[in-house]
Design goal:
By secondary structure, this protein is of the alpha/beta class. Helix content is 43%, strand content 14%. It has 13 helices and eleven strands. The strands form two sheets. It has a seven-stranded mixed β-sheet with strand order 1-7-6-5-4-2-3, with helices on both faces. Strands 8-9-11-10 form a four-stranded antiparallel β-sheet. Helix 2 crosses helix 7 (166-177). The two termini are 30 Å apart.
C-alpha cells in the first residue's frame, strides 16, 4: 500500500471508510474542534458533518459546497469560510462529485489558516492508484479511503498519513475505535494491492474514465441533464428534475429493469434526501466485466427505455430480460 500511494505511513486495519474517518478525526482533533468539510447535500459524505453522524455530533462543522451555475467546487467560498471560521481540519473529497479535485488548492487554503488537511479518497482511491486522478498524498496530512469501490478490493478501509501522525492514527484504530483486526479482510486487501501493482490496473482505471465519459455523452444525447455537465472520474450524477421522476422512483424503476443505480441528492435539491432528485451511476463494475465505450450506448438506451416505460411493469420485465441477455455476453467469471 505504501508503494502504491507513495505514503509515509499506512494503516490497513479500518473495517470501513467511515471507521477510517472516525480514527482520522480523533487522531487530529479533540471533540468540539471546528472542521470545514463538504456539505452532504452538495456531494459530501455522512462522515463530513451530518447531524445524525458522529462527525456532526462530536465536532463543530462548517460546510462548503459547489457553485450554483456549474455545480463545481466553490474554492473561493472555501477560502472565505476558512478565513472566517479558522478550522483545525479541512476535509477534501466527496461521495458524489464527478470532477477532478484540486488538492494543491486545498493545501494552500489549509496552510493559510493553519489547518490540517484530510482527504477522503474513498471513491477515487483506485483512480489515484492507477494514475488516472491526481494524488492527494503530497498535499494531505491524512488520506482515508475504502478498499472496495474503484480500488476493487474487499469491503474495508485504509488510512495513509505522514509519519508524525502515524502513532496517533494507529492508536485511534486500536484501541481507540476498533477491537481485533479482521485478518481475512486484511489478507484480501493484500491480494487487491497486488492486483493494483500490475500494469493492467492502470489500463483498467483509464477504461473506467473513458466509459464514464462515453456514458455521460450518450445520456446527454437522450436529453438528460448531468450535474456539472459531465464527468472526469468514474461516476455520473443525473439531475432528473425536469423529467418529473424522483431519484427514488428512478432507482426502483431501473431495478425492475435489471439495472442497478442509487438515488442521490443533487446540489440545491428541493426533494428530501430519502426521495431525492437524482441518481448516481458508476462505471467500475461494467468496466471490470469487459465492457467498453461501445457498450455505454446500449446501457444509456436501456436506461432511457426504462424511464419511457416507467408505468408499464410488463415492458420493464422485457427490458430486464434484455439487460440480462446483454450482461450475459460479459460474464463475471471465465471458467
Amino acid at each position: 500500500a505504501k508503494e502504491i500511494f507513495n505514503a509515509g505511513h499506512v494503516n490497513v486495519q479500518p473495517h470501513s471508510g467511515s471507521q477510517a474517518n472516525m480514527a482520522a478525526y480523533f487522531a487530529a482533533l479533540k471533540p468540539g474542534a471546528r472542521v470545514l468539510a463538504m456539505d452532504r447535500a452538495h456531494g459530501g459524505h455522512l462522515t463530513h458533518g451530518s447531524k445524525v453522524n458522529f462527525s456532526g455530533l462530536l465536532f463543530e462543522i462548517v460546510s462548503y459546497g459547489v457553485k450554483r451555475d456549474d455545480c463545481t467546487i466553490d474554492y473561493d467560498d472555501i477560502v472565505r469560510k476558512a478565513r472566517e471560521s479558522k478550522p483545525e481540519l479541512i476535509i477534501a473529497g466527496a461521495s458524489s462529485y464527478p470532477r477532478i479535485i484540486d488538492f494543491a488548492r486545498f493545501k494552500e487554503i489549509a496552510d493559510e489558516v493553519g489547518a490540517k488537511l484530510m482527504v477522503d479518497a474513498a471513491h477515487i482511491a483506485g483512480l489515484i492508484a492507477g494514475g488516472s486522478h491526481p494524488s492527494p498524498v503530497p498535499y494531505a496530512d491524512i488520506v482515508t479511503m475504502t478498499t472496495h469501490k474503484t480500488l476493487r478490493g474487499p469491503r474495508g478501509g485504509m488510512i495513509l498519513s505522514t509519519q508524525e501522525l502515524a502513532k496517533p492514527i494507529d492508536k485511534q484504530i486500536f484501541p481507540g475505535t476498533q477491537g481485533g483486526p479482521l485478518m481475512h479482510i486484511i489478507a484480501a486487501k493484500a491480494v487487491a494491492f497486488g492486483e493494483v501493482l500490475k500494469p493492467e490496473f492502470k489500463d483498467y482505471t483509464k477504461r473506467i474514465i473513458a466509459n464514464s465519459r462515453a456514458l455521460a455523452v450518450e445520456l446527454q444525447s437522450h436529453g438528460y441533464k448531468l450535474i456539472s455537465g459531465g464527468t472526469d472520474n468514474h461516476l455520473i450524477l443525473i439531475d432528473l428534475t425536469k423529467t418529473g421522476i424522483t431519484g427514488k422512483r428512478a432507482e426502483d424503476t431501473l431495478g425492475k429493469a435489471g439495472i442497478t443505480v442509487n438515488k442521490n441528492s443533487i446540489p440545491f435539491d428541493t426533494q428530501n434526501p430519502t426521495v431525492s432528485s437524482g441518481i448516481r451511476i458508476g462505471t467500475p463494475a461494467v468496466t471490470t466485466r469487459g465492457m467498453g465505450v461501445d457498450e455505454m450506448s446500449t446501457i444509456a438506451s436501456l436506461i432511457h427505455k426504462s424511464f419511457k416505460n416507467i408505468d408499464d411493469d410488463g415492458a420493464l420485465q422485457l427490458i430486464r430480460e434484455e439487460s440480462y441477455e446483454f450482461a450475459r455476453s460479459f460474464p463475471m467469471f471465465k471458467w
